[in-house]
Task: structure prediction
Amino acid sequence: RIERLQRRLGEREERIGKLEEKTERLEKELKGLKDLRQKELKVARAFADLEDEEVEEMFEFTSKLYELIRKDPEIREKIREKS
Result:
């Protein structure tokens, strides 16, 4: 009977250990998500501070940049190499 109780105790301790590991992993994930959310809020605030004209200029610049990338295979290859 004592052996059975000791075995059950060992099994429970093992499960507790696994749950603690999972809790730690989830806490790290949560912290990462919170950090990411803070970065997203900073970007959103930065865009909110821009004037419509600035946003339009950025959009036009980005569009032209993507167009150049799309048309030039050499540029696409360099981007692939670096990513």
